[in-house]
UniProtKB/TrEMBL annotation, chain A:
Transmembrane segments: none annotated. Residues 294-310 have a biased composition (Basic and acidic residues). GO terms for biological process: chemotaxis. Residues 264-282 have a biased composition (Polar residues). This is Chemotaxis protein CheA.
Automatic annotation (TrEMBL), chain B:
The keyword Nucleotide-binding does not apply. Keywords: Phosphoprotein. It holds the Pfam family Response_reg. This is HoxA-like transcriptional regulator. PANTHER family: CHEMOTAXIS TWO-COMPONENT RESPONSE REGULATOR, STRESS RESPONSE REGULATOR PROTEIN 1. It comes from the Bacteria. GO terms for biological process: phosphorelay signal transduction system. The modification 4-aspartylphosphate is found at D52. PROSITE patterns: RESPONSE_REGULATORY. Residues 3-119 form the Response regulatory domain. It comes from Pseudoalteromonas luteoviolacea (strain 2ta16).
Amino acid sequence: MSIDLSQFFDVFFEESFEGLDAMEAELLNLEPGTEDSETINTIFRAAHSIKGGSGTFGFVSVSDFTHVLETLLDQIRDGQRVLTAEHVNLLLKSVDCVRGLLSALQAEEEPDLSESNELKARFEAILGDESPEVVEAEQSETVSEALQSTTYQIDFKPESHLFKTGNEPLYMFSELAELGELEVNVFHDGLPEFLEFDPEDCFLHWRFFLTTTREEQAISEIFEWVEDDAEIKIEACGGLFEDESPSEQQPSASSTSSDAGNLETVQQAPAQSESATNNEQNKQAEESLAAVQKKVESVKSNKAESRKSTDSAATSIRVGIDKVDSLINMVGELVITQAMLSQIGDQDITESSIAALQEGLTQLAHNTRDLQENVMRIRMLPISFVFSRFPRLVRDTSQKLKKQVELKLVGEQTELDKTVMEKLSDPMVHLVRNSLDHGLETPEDRIANGKNPVGTVTLNAFHQGGNIVIEIMDDGKGLDTEKIRSKAIANGLINESDELSSEEINELIFMPGFSTADSVSDISGRGVGMDVVRRNIQALNGSVEVTSKQGVGSTFTIRLPLTLAILDGQLVQVATHTYIIPLISIVESLQIDITKVSKVGKGLEVLRLRDEYIPILRLYDIFSHQGAREELDKTLLVVVESDNYKIGLLVDDLLAQQQVVIKSLEANYQKVDGISGATILGDGTVSLIIDISGLIKLSGLRRPGSTELLVDLKGEEAEPA
Amino acid sequence: MKKILAVDDSASMRQMVGFTLKKAGFDVTEAKDGSEALSLAKQQGFDAVISDVNMPVMDGITLIRELRSLPNYKFTPLLMLTTESGLDKKSEGKAAGATGWIVKPFNPDQLLAVLKKVIR
């Protein structure tokens, strides 16, 4: 039977990467030198599974390497060896190494073996001169070289409990028969009296004469499983079988497997089977040649196929069966509602049927909403997928920086959309590295400041409204506002005369080209840091802020929408067009009190709202629509906030609030500044979704490190009235 | 159709064993660890069980011992999947009641060849 093993590769890679993650996490747990047998077991199992799978699926480079890993872990597990810090370090390196090998294999590249060979040598050095067994991926059945056929006398006397091991003598005998010419003699002299007869026990024993070209090992292999449950004697008795009765007792039954039990056939057997074997060998050789050719072809086609599948593998998600079940359940309800509605539709419309119709529609809306929520849930994964890479990162980085760090993870089960998660990882890595490098002090400094020499970095995730909030907290020295300020002045970001509050100074670190690290380290990069972080997070419709207290620590707070696919939107009317403003960014909507509007600079209007000045953006102006209401007192102002920055959007009217499915403009048309996407409304028209921060940029309002308004559209600064 | 219970914590191995056996005409049920396998085995009868040794929750040796003690599995072939480095596991498995073992790595043909020893 030919089975194409490559169909299991995807699953193998997926589970191996998971196994490596688990290994890594457990290894990091081991650090304090506490050896918990369950932890060791988990690590061992992961290595063991990867080795088994890679061997089975023909990834020899991986199975060879994991073999030494497994051997070491097995010895540790059995208590033959004590786990040392060196082992842990080596094992962690191996995790990376295996990950690299697997990634290369997954991408169908030739893996680079230099690292694995080096690590393997180190493991072998630890294990002593014990030479590792080479894992044979394919133990192809080799046809015995010896064409000489031999007759063996085989005595098989099982113990009475044979059946209770699950072994079946009949099958073993037919295997024997496949090796050559077989004569079977059964002895029933061991049978007890009827009253003492236990049908579950074996009382028979056998003697075979097997004429075969195969070696004795082929025979003993058949009895391998019952070696300890039977007396087995295999003896060669020369090329020819002499017709003599094997014992004083006459065999009670006798038969040969091939032809009906005559002994002459057996005597002719050697010559016959020799030619038979020759034929067979030729045939086998032909077959295997054909098989090889077929394999080559299938490998070719597989390559093309699996290249395709690597792309899709990267975008697949695992979904818990409970989520799928609830979906099926919901679709069922939807079908029932649909049936109910079509039943109403078939009847003539009467007053009572209208009531039923309305009820049906309500139910439909309910079902659809439930279904939508549950479909969205499919894309949701716990944030631990991102968090899990940090223990390792913190460990390695802190070792490099010679700092002592404890990492705390809180809210790992908080779920968010997979796409958001993927894009969240890099900014978070950056922020954590930043905390370790710039935030936390060295143990000496900490002691000098009366702090615990071990610094703490906490990652905390939780839901807040429709958002997920991720906090990265450290108890380090906090942001040095003086240093930031002087740096910003040196870089020309602010003027020496600017009076900035400490919050405003902290904001400066998110400006492009800002870095306070005295020396550029390889840990937190080359000053391309925070502005990129902020940009990446804003691209996800999120925000990042920092709060800090000198000597106590800093907290970076990332806020992100739970999903990128659906958004709660406020529909607004501008001239004849309907736009959507993300509900999450709306602070308030109000009628304008024109006495509080002042003009600033060349044509910018600001509204004094309580103690703030809100710049007014006329949407019809920005999007060039004719026929909109232009009088401020006849329109509405929607105050929105982005990056702590408020602006007022002038609209004709507020329409409904609804959830909208975001369709990408880039994919269907092209990127449009100030617009983040589009959606299709209930009446089938397309409506554009406003990108607030893009709009601010588009309108020329910017805020370089100050809450005060600077209009640089026309290259001049303006003070609010 | 003969029913086989395939137990392995590794999804790829489970799928490979399952697929091979199904293609060979067996009715295959899969379980991801010993404890899941045991409860399945108690609910329905199987003509053979193939189990990995190293698994979380309940390992293969324990599973075999538990199964062999059940009246319905007195004579059932119980095979374990071992690796060449787990040779001592074989005797441990035999003592627990295993019928035999299949050494990893194996390919589908080898699996079927070995299986022929105990179930047809």
